[in-house]
Amino acid sequence: MKQTIKSIILVIGLCCWIPAAYAADDHDHDHAHAAGPRGGKLLENSPPHAEFFVEKDRTVSFAFYDEKLKPVAASEQQVTVIAEAKSGRVRIPFEKRKGKLVSKKKLPEGDGYRVVVLLRGKQGAKSENFRFEFHDEVCGGCKRAEYACICEEGEHEHGKEGHKKGDGHDH
Ligand SMILES: [Zn+2]
Q1: Closest C-alpha to 151, from 36, 14, 143
Q2: Beta-carbon neighbour count of residue 148 at 10 Å?
Q3: From its phi and psi, is residue 110 left (phi > 0), alpha (psi between -120 and 50) or beta?
Q4: Which pLDDT tens digit goes with each residue over 111-153?
Q5: CB–CB of 101/94 below 8 Å?
């Protein structure tokens, strides 16, 4: 009897899971979420696009790309990252180094916390804010770092939100 119940639960589970998986797959095809060329998270900011990338030593760097994802040297951009770690909120300043913006501090210990990126494209421009969860592990689906995952459903929702709010950023 217990076995039967288990099988029923399993079947119901699969029925719910399969359509969800297909839906996610379809979505990936219509609206390819651009992957950061260095394996980081490509932000949907006004071009040049910024890629958030966590180095092995947990410093963060931002590289910039044009619409065709060709690297462009950082110029006037200013960025601040706020890591909302369990141990407390940390404000991370950046400096320009070799065409990128590099953090002056490392990300706090642990993961599964929220990261806020405040990005200003030009001096005097209003800053664009991006929020996402920082996860250290590698995603089983796309084999990218979890924070840079391009197959997660939540990522698409975030992307859509960005498009609605985006001013003059039409595709
Ligand atoms: Zn993934």
Answers
A1: 143
A2: 24
A3: left
A4: 999 999 999 999 889 999 999 999 989 999 999 999 999 985 5
A5: yes
pTM of the model: 0.70
Ligand 1 centroid – CA 158 distance (Å) = 15
Gap from CA of 91 to ligand 1 centroid (Å)? 27
Separation of 153 CA from ligand 1 center, angstroms? 9
Evaluate whether 115 touches 123 at the Cβ level (below 8 Å): no
How high is the pLDDT of residue 35?
92
State the sign of the Cα–Cα–Cα–Cα dihedral 139, 22, 67, 47.
negative
Q: How far is the CA of 4 from the centre of ligand 1 (A)?
A: 34
- 13: its two tokens: 């589970």
